[in-house]
Amino acid sequence: MTNFFIKAGFLIIIVLFINLLIRNSIPYFWSMDTLLSYEKVLETYYKDTNLLFLGTSRTANGIQPSWLDNQLNKYHNLNINSYNLGIPGASIGENCALAREYLYNEKLPKLKYIVIELTSVENALSGQFCGPKVLHSARTTYWLDSKGLLFSINNLFGQAQIYTKQKIKLTYNYITSYLINMLNIGMLDDFFKLKALGISENSFGKGHKHSRGYRDVEKEPSKEMSRRKKEHLNTKGKRSNQKAKNSILFFNGKANAKKLKNKAFLKGLKQLIEEGEKRNIKIIYLVPPLIRLKSYEHLSSVYKALPLTNKVQLTNANVFPELYEYTNIFDGTHFTKDGAHIYTKYLANELTKKLLR
Amino acid sequence: MLFNSIAFIIFFPIVIFLYFLTPYKYRWILLLAASYYFYMCWKAEYIILILLSTIVDYFVSLKMASLPEKKQRRKWLYLSFLCNLGLLFTFKYFNFFSDSVNLFLQNFNIFYEPFYLNVLLPVGISFYTFQTLSYTIDVYNEKVEPERHFGYFALYVSFFPQLVAGPIERPARLLPQFRQKFDFDYERVVTGLKMMAWGFFMKLVIADRLAPIVNKVFNHPSKFEGIEVIVATIFFSFQIFCDFAGYSIIAIGAAKVMGYDLMQNFRRPYFATSIREFWQRWHISLSTWFRDYVYIPLGGNRVVKWRWYYNLFVTFVVSGLWHGANWTFVIWGALHGFYLIFAIVTQSFRDKFNAAIGLNKYPQLHHFLQIVVTFILAAFAWIFFRANNVGDAFTLIQNMFYIEVSQFTWQLIPTVDTYKIWLVIFFMLILELYHAIEEFSSSPTPLYSSSTIVRWTSYVLLIIITLGFGSYTSNDFIYFQF
Description:
The structure holds 2 protein chains of 2 kinds. By secondary structure, chain A is α/β, with parallel strands linked by helices. Helices cover 52% and strands 7% of the residues of chain A. Chain A is globular, with a radius of gyration of 21 Å. The mean pLDDT of chain A is 79. Chain B is mainly alpha-helical. Helices cover 68% and strands 0% of the residues of chain B. In chain B, helix 3 (47-66) packs antiparallel against helix 4 (70-106), helix 9 (227-258) crosses helix 15 (363-386) and helix 13 runs antiparallel to helix 15. The mean pLDDT of chain B is 88. Classes of the chains: A alpha/beta, B mainly alpha.
């Protein structure tokens, strides 16, 4: 039996060593075609970007960089060139890892600001994106390293409202995905595919190249989005009204901010701010509109504890009622083109206050 | 639980660890609990079907053993048939039967709303049903003594490595092994693990990479023609082989680690020189089951010629139906039955023809041509097996003959990346190269007798390739649905 364990151990060490060699000799890349196309457009055509937006599909479909730049430069002479790198379904861990990618690797030499959409952790890394059912997922191969794993798990266990069973399940998903990354599962395939096929600029639809990353949801809605649009139209504004009420509750302090503070989450966000400051890049966290009550419960205390100069909110329905107008919303979560325009207008106003400081 | 899942990667070492720690006497308890857990991971309530089958066959066999007359035993055998085949019919064939009756009656202008059962097909029901049936039939024929230990018998029905997709074991072979005392044997454990690694390579790197390409063509038959259909058909031939043989090898390897020898289920079937030989190499546990429990009881070949052909044909049609409740499977089985009968009928003519053209003077060329022709016949039949319905199968066959020069591109199948196609072809070539070495080498396991460096390099490469190039998007094994 000893002989078996010695040989098996030796084999495992060789395999792990070769995996490490492979991992370190493969450059950083995204394994999902659509995301690769985003990065390619950014790094090929918009290297002059000095303000980068990171977030979920809310960001991708909500922020129009060209219009925003125009406003900021015309009225405030800020000389902003922004790019919208919102990724549908991205978790906060994923966005923090992406922010670090741009902080440290000097891919965008003029970068001065990174605006990160603040999302709660509760549904991040659901089985759809990683975990035992989808062993190799494009959503985790590039960011879930040991730092990402620790941040995500600490963040998860800091959330008081999540049931222990769900915490265990998500932790299992995170660890599984981390191990998969360490073993390069599916990675060689992605690498060779990338080398053989190259990156298409249009994998993520054709529009985003000329709109600095912004995607008009009305142009190429996915089947799921179209389904949700129908559902949204059927509700005739009931759901957006409810979300508006939730946002007001959040700002009236009824979400019991003090009690629910997620220290690990806050610590991770503050750490990123500090890392940015060291490299003269300002990190700003943005709370978007149209989020769920549960997300407000998760985010409120953390948001309130963030430094004033590093946060922006566009979620309070008392202040931004148009963002909850039924007609400006495409499917209950994303904006129509007109809605995105209004959202960008408000964002420009709020950002100006932060950037002029 | 799937073999290609994280759950199994955690489950298996734990079971093995506990297995070797547990005293021999109590190992059956561990294995039975592990087997039930393995099955219940899929749908817990369906364990009742296995339990029912186990209880009925346990008591039926004991009863049969107490009766001296075959006539008396027969009633109990029928009870076992009623229970096992009744469950199989209800869960697998009822809706197909109801649908077929409805379609048939429509020809006589009788229209009604057919009744369907809204039930899921229990995973592996055809496999464990056949395994228990072989037990009761063997007890009935007094070929084996009934197993009096309920635990061992329950384990025979549900032994987790082969529970859901075979190999379909026989009582005389598997039951005595549960009483044997297996210690940790280095050679046996390593051989088992090597088999499992090879099975994972076949499943994850070849079968699962082929699946999306094959699906593209077979799910849209009218959109593809000529070379595209031919390539997809060849790809499916390899997909089903690597999927099922991969499962079998993992199952055999997993059992071997614990000490149990399961029967070989595949022996390089695409090197067969005739359809008859193909069935001696493909799903051996099922083809021998049909031989012993259907074909021979029907009279086998010890009857008049027409009856022999009839026996062959019926056996293959039933075998087709075993695979699934769909006319496509029936046609697939019938086609193989037809191949065999045609081969027997034309044997002397073909011998004369080969002699006339001088092919028998070149035995190697003859052998090669036989392999190619057998592969073409088997691949053609796979079209029916894979097609979503009979109409689709005929569309594909019709489209297959629209070959144009413009189709001869590196891409082979439009809308599928050239890279993906050629990478999987490369892996298929590796597989067939290894099989060719095995087939024509004097050593039964040529790699095992190579030098240490060659062996270790092969193992490391196999693992790295499986990890790096495998498809990990939760693909079930095709044979689970049977």
